[in-house]
Amino acid sequence: MGNTTMKTLLLVLLTLLVSMAHGGIVLEDAEDGTTDGWRQNNGDPACQFENIYDAESYSRVIRFNGGGSCVLGSHWAGGSHSLHISDGATVISWRIRTTGQPFNFYVVASTSDGGYRFFNYASASYNHGLHHFNRYYIHHGLAQDHQVNTWRRFTRDLSRDLHDAQPDVDIIEIHGIIFNNGQGSLLDDIVLYTPDEALLEDGESGTDGWGLLNNPPGSSINNIPDNDMQGRHLQGHVISLEETNGQGIGNGYRLGAPTGPDAWRQRGKSILQWRFRQFGGPPVHPIDTGHVEDPDALEFRVSVQTVMGQRDLVYRLGGQHLGITENGQAIHHAIGDDRTIGSTIDEPNIPDDEENPLGLWQAEARDLQQDIRDFEPRNRLLSVNAFTVRNAGLVDDIKLLPHISESYRTVFEDAENENTNGWWVYDDDPPGAGIANLYDADRQSRVIETSGDGLNNGYEIGRRHAPGQWHDTRDDHVRWSQRFAEDFVVYVALDTTQGPRYMRYRPVNGDMGVDGNYIDFGLGAGMDDGQWHTFERNLQQDVSAFEPGNLVLAINAFLVRGSGRLDDIQTFHLNRIFAAGFE
Hints:
Keywords: Signal. By secondary structure, this protein is mainly β.
């Protein structure tokens, strides 16, 4: 990629090596300070781009000017600049901040039918499906998630989006990214990865886990063979939510539960994806853009636990988010007009018999963490517990996927196993210190509690010395949550090229630097205020701040002095392949 064929080959090779090592490929993060790899699509002079520093996100980004068509890699399957990514990673994530100008984000891929597809993610509120303009385009709208001058991360499962249109066709290779229009937009962190998904419903296990919500007589939940026109009966069974009582949205159907023993308590996966069709009245052609015949055609509700308490994320037809509703307990997002339930509009210059069939399956993918922060910026998702549907229709393939950063995490402790395996009191003078696994009502999850004589006792998970070391050679970031109402010290034990190092973090302002094998950092005064706080440290950056040239080789243990509570101790690594430079 870039200005020469050699640079292209080097980048492709390095990309594939990174992919094999870590399960993901960073296509662009802008941290190299250049625009290498980007070019004008078909020589479009309106395509202008530059690499700038964005103070809001504390990182470098790509800014697009002129509103033209720009490409990273190849704009078609046989292009000489093709990325040639064929390792099976088909979930794509990117961050974007727009000025309100319409945009299209395309992914170019070759497919198993010998053809190719343009996956078109557009600033529109509907899905055109496969037949938008021609048989090579698969169109999905993002407009209702798209907010002006606000960073937003999108994640799409390319394989799922393809299979919704053509279930018997698979992706073979990813060749490039095209960004059209979007004048003034900022783009960053384009990543392909293979997530560890949690499948909650695929229609192949009857109706297990489903229940009715005090519905009037005449509602039922059934498992039926798939009869959709686009699937050609290749997608197995689906869940049919039915009613004969005429109450419409008054009928509720739930998988999981908001609380209690039936709650999923799914943690570490913040993207929910599902398919649906046959909601509301029969699909209509043609309709006007923005038309919503029946605002009560459907409602999807996701029950979650957050650091601020229980929330329901509510998704309904419409063009405007209502935000916080139901006395602060729900957050409403609009998901578009009647095209969301399968109606169509007249496409200019396209014969009717080439336009989309009515009533296609629709795929919805929601970043639950982002949907919360859109209206509660300081809130954070803890767990996903239930999925509720109101009104009759078909649903299928309900699954949770990790956010890109979640997919790179190694979780060493989340306390959900209800034990303290792996922990020990490494400094038990004075005696009597203990470690417990218990339920924390504020966090709505299990946590680890250390109790003893303040800083005089120390606790460790992993080991500084073998045996028992984590010896995590893949990761170079650490993240943890804690609640302490007294002084504390957190240590992370590392192997580095200059020997063992202990990163020491305290509730003070300012960084103290090197003290023998210790490197001291402040987490900020007041972090011992008895509230839950989450910290994330780039360990390589912390080491380099005081020992330039010293490289982190392995993360071995997490230690703490003080009495308090801990949760979600994890490490991760995000590859920055463009930082290699190729200069």
